[in-house]
Amino acid sequence: MIKGSITAFYALSLQEFHMNSHSHDSFEIMYVTGGSCIVYCDDDKYTLAPNHFIFIRSGVPHRLEICREKPCSILNLEFVLSETDGSIPLEGLVERCGEFRSLWNKMPDCFCGQDLRNLGYSLKDLISHIQKSSAEGDFLLQLIMTRTMAELAYSIISGRNEAGYCYIRKACDYLNQHFHSGISIPELASYIGISKSYLQALFSKAIGCSIMEYVVRKRMEEAVFLLVNSTFSIIDISTAVGFNSRQHFSLTFTKHYGVSPQAYRSTHRRVLEPDTGQKRYILDGKRLTYRNFSK
């Protein structure tokens, strides 16, 4: 069984930052939620845009650059994985998740790619939860950490498949930016430069759902975020996420989550900001300490 330990994390918005090249004994994920940044790994240079991430293996020298002209919001997680030691048991991850099993057997030194499913949401949930609780034996922490590793493996393994990946990446970029408006599959295929049938076949194989199912999922995720974190009315939310009528939105939401938008808001509404301020938290055994994040 794989076990994990979280060694450091942060969620920051930085106007400018210049990191010295360094390496450490932890794996690292940097995930851009807004703006852009540049990451150097050994002799390679990677530019990260929103919804893109970089995974860095332990021991690999790297550094982060954020230019003053292009500020960046970034999620960061440093962690250790081992078959023998670790405070977070990730039971079933290798046995039941084929993508993670492939990743574990052939771990890249560095991988830069797009979030092809829900890695960003998993990281936000994980960082938010660690700020509240990092106790050993925390079952919810085990679940969120396991989910994050599964999402990471999915995006990396899917990204290794060169055949058609550039088309899927372009399609996901387009859908992530335009799911609020009407989506036409023929227009999307024309934009990418391939046939509609080929695009649908590639997309279904890589993402595991149809294009329109992906669009609906993105709309539902945005709706949940607005229901929980905003004071917008239901009709305003339905319009914001791309529905032409409140009734259609409510029916789709209820089918997706099993409750109406109103009921979901009543149950889940809260103020949740996965933001560690200007602090970088460090887990050392059972102690949680932090340092101010300095340039």
Describe, in plain words, how this protein is organized in 3D.
The protein is an alpha+beta fold. The radius of gyration is 20 Å and the shape is globular. The protein has 2 domains: 3-160, Jelly Rolls, CATH 2.60.120; 165-268, Homeodomain-like (Arc Repressor Mutant, subunit A). Helix 2 (98-105) crosses helix 4 (139-160), helix 3 packs antiparallel against helix 4 and helix 5 (165-178) crosses helix 7 (196-207). Strands 1, 3, 6, 8, 9, 10, 11 and 12 form an 8-stranded antiparallel beta sheet that branches. It has a 4-stranded antiparallel beta sheet with strand order 2-7-4-5, with no helix packed on it. It has helices at 93-96, 98-105, 119-132, 139-160, 165-178, 185-192, 196-207, 211-229, 234-240, 246-257, 261-268; strands at residues 3-14, 17-18, 27-35, 37-41, 44-48, 52-56, 62-66, 72-82, 88-89, 110-114, 279-284, 287-292. Strand 4 and strand 5 (44-48) form a beta hairpin. The chain contains 11 helices and 12 strands. The model has no long low-confidence stretch (mean pLDDT 88).
